Amino acid sequence: MGYVSTAQVIQRHNGNCQYYMICPAQLAQALEIQKGETIEWIVEDKYTLTLKRRNKTLKSKTQKVSK
Fold first, then answer.
1. Which residues pair with 42 in a beta bridge?
2. Is residue 46 scored above 80 in pLDDT?
3. How confident is the model at residue 2 (pLDDT cuts 50, 70, 90)?
4. Secondary structure of the chain as H, E, C letters
5. Distance (Å, rounded) from C-alpha 34 to C-alpha 58?
6. What is the pLDDT of residues 5-42, one digit of tens each?
7. How far apart are CA 42 and CA 64, in angstroms?
8. Minimal CA–CA distance to 37: which of 63, 9, 18, 56?
9. For residue 25, with 0-12 CB atoms within 10 Å meaning exposed, 13-18 middle and 19 or more buried, which class applies?
10. Extents of the domains making up the chain
């Protein structure tokens, strides 16, 4: 099953621009992605990006994180 996403560009007044790729909610839920989770983008070639979780262990949604 595939999900389509459109690249968004924010043009800053200082000439810099920032690109955003939105992850559809259904895909994030299927992968159990959590808020603040670190994802690594790996460029395989010009047409292929691979996403890799950087976190070895995922914290459950009900578990509190001590500061």
1. 50
2. yes
3. confident
4. CCCCCCEEEEECCCCCEEEEECCCHHHHHHCCCCCCCCEEEEEEECCEEEEEECCCCCCCCCCCCCC
5. 8
6. 899 999 999 989 999 988 899 989 998 999 889 999 99
7. 31
8. 56
9. exposed
10. 7-53
Sequence length of the chain is 67
| Burial of residue 33 (number of CB atoms within 10 Å: 0-12, 13-18, 19+) | middle
The neighbouring-strand residues paired with 52 are: 40
**Positive or negative torsion for Cα 35, 40, 44, 50:** negative
| Residues with Cβ within 8 Å of residue 54, at least 6 apart in sequence | 38, 39, 40
Give the residue among 51, 47, 9, 7 at the shortest CA–CA distance from 28: 51
